[in-house]
Amino acid sequence: MTTPLYTVACLKNRLLASDVYEIVLKKPANFTFTPGQFVLFQVPLLKNPKDVQPRAYSIASTPEEEELIFIIRLKSGGRSSIWIENILKAGMYVQFQGPFGLFLLDRTTPKDYLFICTGAGIGPFRSMILDHMKRPVLCHPEPKKAQHDTDSKRIDLIFGVRNEAELFWQEDLQELAQKHENFFIHLALSKASDQWKGHRGRVQTLVPLITKDFSNKNVYLCGNPDMTTEVKKLCLEEWGVRKEDLHVEGYM
Fold first, then answer.
1. What pTM was computed for the model?
2. What are φ and ψ of residue 149, in 5° steps?
3. Per-residue DSSP letters for 159-204?
């Protein structure tokens, strides 16, 4: 079955943080997806708009939201980065195909969730977390309550960037943590300024400070390939995470 090609209006293109853009598109009326999935933007070449290539970006919005949100980190000289920074503006039309991908939340697990991300890798986790908090329990000790209760398992989100200029959404995430006693946000800055009062170091140095026992954790990794490769190795070889409880999506 051929995946349809959608043409939609760009509603917003704004700089969120250093080299990080938030793109908001109008959602097609018949478009459905599962949190964690991505779409393929059809990105034109600056000097030749007829030269189009696909680029994959995870959907950061939830299926219930009326718009499609994407978080994109610029890559110097990249086709998509040049297009986003110099061409794409609100009111223009964007083509994409999708949804694709199997980086999906296991909602039947009785285990707590541990999300680890860097930079734009937080995108699919926003979709997963917000969507999950609104849904009824699928794994509950008392099945009769499953239609009424929302899931109260612990959710830890570790979000890593290099410095304060690269941070975004932290206020929204902290507000979410205040509203939900089972949700915890942890920030890790690898090259923070002297004024930073939070954790200093990469995300993998923060993980052991949050949990020592991984037997009850369902772990999700999303971010740059160096991070996901190293943390995956730590999960399997040092932290004792079971292979079936580990889910990985690499980002550039």
1. 0.91
2. -85, 140
3. EEESSGGG--SHHHHHHHHHH-TTEEEEEEETT--TT--SEES-HH
Q: Are 119 and 22 within 8 A, CB to CB? A: no
Chain centroid to Cα 112, Å, comes to 18
- Regarding the domain with residue range 5-100, which homologous superfamily does it belong to in the CATH classification? Translation factors (2.40.30.10)
Tens-digit pLDDT profile for residues 217-250 = 999 999 999 999 999 999 999 999 999 999 999 8
Candidates 1, 4, 249; CA nearest to 127 is 249
The structural domains of the chain, with segments of one domain joined by +, span: 5-100, 112-250
Query: Can you give the length of the chain in residues?
Result: 252
Q: Give the amino acid at 132.
A: H
> Contacts from 80-88 at CB under 8 Å and sequence distance 24+?
80/41, 80/43, 80/55, 82/46, 83/43, 83/44, 83/46, 84/13, 84/21, 84/23, 85/21, 86/46, 87/44, 87/46, 88/10, 88/13, 88/23
The architecture that CATH gives domain 112-250 is 3-Layer(aba) Sandwich (3.40)
Largest CA distance in the chain: 61
